[in-house]
Amino acid sequence: MSIKLKIPLIMLAALLLNIVILLCYFVFYLSVRVDTYQVKMQQTVSEVAQEIAAAIDGESLDLASEYLSLYKNPKKLAFVLTDTQTGEETNWNMGKAESIGFTQTSLLTLSGHSYVLLVKKQVELFNFRTHGVFQELLYFEFAVLLVIFLLLGVIIHFRYVSSLLKLNGAMHLYKDKKQVLQETDRKDEIGKLQTSFAALSRSLEAEKQVQNRIISSISHDIKTPLTSVLGYSERLLKKELSPQKQQQYTQTIYMQARDIEAIVEEFDDYLSLSAPRKEQLQKYKVSYICTMLEDEYRLRLEEQGIVFTLWNQCSDNTEIYTDLLKLRRVFANIIGNSIRHARVTGLQIQVSFISSADKLFITMSDNGNGISETDLPYIFEPFYTSDQSRRISGLGLSICKQIVEGNGGSISAENLPEGGLLIRFTLPLLPIPSRI
């Protein structure tokens, strides 16, 4: 359950707990005290009424008034004398009219007239100091709230704050020692945050390994021809060489420099490739792309003894939006990869185009030796090679993957049962996908 739901539920539970505790406290403790207070106060009022009636009954009204005025009244009782004939009232210590309380009446004779003596203990409903029950309930509520808040603080600290502090510590630990954080089974926001950070740290570690492999591969690939360039340059500078040798060394230096240039350019292409911008995309018919490939490769490959076959099974009006220069780079990299690694006599390269309702399927295959099943899942990774003793910069298929996926498609590879490698990639047909 998420924290945004847990916190209100915890607060609601605390409120209900507070109400239950107050009810229990009142029912099992305060109500007994209230009953006792009522009994004692009613008894006190009755005793005072009897005492005053016995003292002033049969006396004069003035004497009775003086007695009531001077009566020691620690309980702060109110007295009322009412003439039964005229209804005239005389009172002492009367409070607010809306107050309630305990009363006791007695019939008296004063100065030859009948009077009713009313003795009353007034209790103001909203005055907590009238008696200690409400005041005690208020103090108890403060104590309960303090305990509940402390309990809530402990729960929130150990359940949420400590988890955040641990996560923060794990982040600093990863920053200092690159120790990857483990995932958690928690389903709330903190658990999702920890899981996301764990996935991010693993991704960063994987990316770091790729970068280290890239740096190592580039360094090795450049170092080899660079060593050759330095060696032959040193010979040219320090030795008396025949014109033939000078020409040979100069040619070697030039070829090695071109190899370095090719490595740097390929690496630069790999770093600069990204999703094509809309202004780079243009509409092309598939038939036009097929004609372009025929013109570009058939004759050149036939001169090298390679059979190039192309099938277009799309309708004439099938169109795609693409960056044609980058798409040509995909075909060039895959065909070049087949020529370099097929290692068979009578190499054959086949290209086919098939369309569905919203996708263009392009397959490119050869009759070479294929790739081992162990290495097959990794051939689109940059600088991957099955021969760990050789770090040959191989970015061609990785560049193909970037271009195809940047154009909204996907690419995969598989070995053919009869031998050879098949690479299949898809491109979206019109209309243009929203992500392009």
TrEMBL record:
<keyword id="KW-1133">Transmembrane helix</keyword>
<keyword id="KW-0547">Nucleotide-binding</keyword>
<dbReference type="InterPro" id="IPR004358">
    <property type="entry name" value="Sig_transdc_His_kin-like_C"/>
</dbReference>
<keyword id="KW-0902">Two-component regulatory system</keyword>
<dbReference type="Pfam" id="PF02518">
    <property type="entry name" value="HATPase_c"/>
</dbReference>
<keyword id="KW-0418">Kinase</keyword>
<keyword id="KW-0067">ATP-binding</keyword>
<protein>
    <recommendedName>
        <fullName>histidine kinase</fullName>
        <ecNumber>2.7.13.3</ecNumber>
    </recommendedName>
</protein>
<keyword id="KW-0472">Membrane</keyword>
<feature type="transmembrane region" description="Helical">
    <location>
        <begin position="137"/>
        <end position="158"/>
    </location>
</feature>
<feature type="transmembrane region" description="Helical">
    <location>
        <begin position="7"/>
        <end position="32"/>
    </location>
</feature>
<dbReference type="InterPro" id="IPR036097">
    <property type="entry name" value="HisK_dim/P_sf"/>
</dbReference>
<dbReference type="GO" id="GO:0005524">
    <property type="term" value="F:ATP binding"/>
</dbReference>
<dbReference type="InterPro" id="IPR003661">
    <property type="entry name" value="HisK_dim/P_dom"/>
</dbReference>
<keyword id="KW-0812">Transmembrane</keyword>
<dbReference type="InterPro" id="IPR050398">
    <property type="entry name" value="HssS/ArlS-like"/>
</dbReference>
<dbReference type="Pfam" id="PF00512">
    <property type="entry name" value="HisKA"/>
</dbReference>
<dbReference type="InterPro" id="IPR003594">
    <property type="entry name" value="HATPase_dom"/>
</dbReference>
<keyword id="KW-0597">Phosphoprotein</keyword>
<dbReference type="GO" id="GO:0000155">
    <property type="term" value="F:phosphorelay sensor kinase activity"/>
</dbReference>
<dbReference type="InterPro" id="IPR036890">
    <property type="entry name" value="HATPase_C_sf"/>
</dbReference>
<dbReference type="GO" id="GO:0005886">
    <property type="term" value="C:plasma membrane"/>
</dbReference>
<keyword id="KW-0808">Transferase</keyword>
<dbReference type="InterPro" id="IPR005467">
    <property type="entry name" value="His_kinase_dom"/>
</dbReference>
<feature type="domain" description="Histidine kinase">
    <location>
        <begin position="217"/>
        <end position="431"/>
    </location>
</feature>
<keyword id="KW-1003">Cell membrane</keyword>
